[in-house]
Specification:
Layout (H helix, E strand, L loop, with lengths): L1 H11 L5 E5 L5 H9 L4 E4 L2 H7 L8 E4 L8 H4 L3 E7 L2 H14 L3 E6 L13 H12 L8 E7 L8 H21 L8 E3 L6 H6 L4 E4 L1 H4 L4
Parallel strand pairs: 1-2, 1-8, 2-3, 3-4, 4-5, 5-6, 6-7
The chain binds pyridoxal-5'-phosphate (PLP).
Amino acid sequence: MIAERLQSIQSELPSGVELVAVSKFHPAGEILEAYAAGQRAFGENRPQEFAAKVPSLPADIRWHFIGHLQTNKLKLVLPYAALVQSVDSRHLLDAIQAWGAANGRIVPILLELHLGAEETKGGFTQEEIMAVMDEYASGAASLSCVRIRGLMGMATNTDDEDVVRSDFARIRAFKDRLSALHPALADFTELSIGMSGDWRIALEYGATIVRIGTAIFGPRK
Ligand SMILES: *Cc1c(COP(=O)(O)O)cnc(C)c1O
């Protein structure tokens, strides 16, 4: 079942778009089922669950961290994450920089843009991201241990497709603007948008990463 769902999604993804299978709340056995079907990128959103799963699963899995990360949980996540997608505040960014400096690591990240209407959702404002990118592009020592690979966003949780489209259009336009402002940042390329309910729409807006859980693993218990 998992294998068939994965295959069906993969068959619709253009080449160059990475499928992150969001395995949060699902046991290691189901991750192994997806792994056996060829899936290598998985996403988790809770540090404790992430740290517990990683050591028991194959070493060539590329783990994406996609949830809110408190600065006192960095050591559970940063040693193992191929990409931290959900960097949502300057406070967290500074803490990741400090961890990278202390551990001799450069941490690949995405900046999460606050999209949609929900106040409860995290993320930077566009103005905050503009400031971070100016600083990063200048080669500042304050951001020397992060590699900013692009933007992540979650559309408004709604059945109204027009609202989802306008969220995706906004983040896409903003990413294009940042790329135009900073042409020297050749690896600022990723746009992580699209979940089980809206990934096909996200592809129309230039998603390079889609994060899909329910449509692969079924409902979370
Ligand atoms: C849970 C989660 C997903 C996957 O959601 P589904 O609707 O199950 O595909 C994607 N992105 C983030 C940030 C998540 O927390």
